[in-house]
Structure formats: C-alpha cells, structure tokens
Predict the 3D structure of the following.
Amino acid sequence: MGSLAFRSVQGGCTGEEFTENLKKDGDSQGSKWYDYESSPKWIEASFKTPVRVKFLQLKSANDCQRRDPYEITIQIGKLEQIAHFSYIIYNSRYEVKDFHVDTLEEIFCLRIRIHRNLGMAQGEVDQYGTQLAQVILYLSKSKLEDYINLVNLYIHNYFSKLLVIV
C-alpha cells in the first residue's frame, strides 16, 4: 500500500514524524504523522491492484489530544464520499477507533479527509495542527469471504438471540 498525505512537517519536533509512520505499528515518541497547518487535510492510500476496504482504524498519536481528528470523510474514486464521521473523541494516547467504511466494490485509492481536529471543534484559534499514529485498513479478500462473514454474523446474531431468550 502506498500512502500520501496532503502535507507533512517532514520530521516534526522529534525528526521522526513522517507520512510513512501511518503504515507502522509503534508507540515510540516519533511514530506518528503530523501536519502543522490548521486547514483541512487528507491522507490517501493507493493500491497496485484493486481492493475492497471493509473497515479502517485510526490510532491517535502520543502527546496532544487537541490535534487528534474529530471529523473525517472517507472518499474513493474521483473523490466520491462514502462515509462521514464526526464527534470522534480519543481519550488516551495510542487509542484505536474503528470505522465501518465498506467500499462495496474494489478500488485503487481511498482518501481520509480530515475536516477538523478536536481543538478546532472546541473553537481554539491556534489549534496546533493535526496528528495520527497509524491508519489500519481491513480488506476483503473475495466475495466468498464476504458471504462466509455474512453467514457467520447471522449465526452469531441468531445464537445471541437464543441466549437472551433462554
């Protein structure tokens, strides 16, 4: 997976805060991406072969809650919006939030547009940019896998209802 961000501080205060960090699992001080501007921004994942994205996770960074994303839009293709999430609040460092974003079809590109961070949502004038530690994408491997997952979900729900009744 290739990744690209609209803008990056190219190292940040630690000298380690790059776009490539969004693909890495890590909790070190510099393992994040940081954009110093207060304007909306985006992160894009591109694929050599088409994939179907089912879920994504965003992992908060390590040091400044007001920099964490608060409102995002997921776009595919020619920037077609497929999902919008707001009121995202991270309560701890390196917290992971789940987002259901099923693209329904195979795509070559997925863009996460960050409209505002927590500081902007709270009305801060100088809100110190936006940061993230990691973007995790969950891909569907085949239509058969989708069918099996649907059947498993149905079975799970069926048995859950039985357990509640008994």
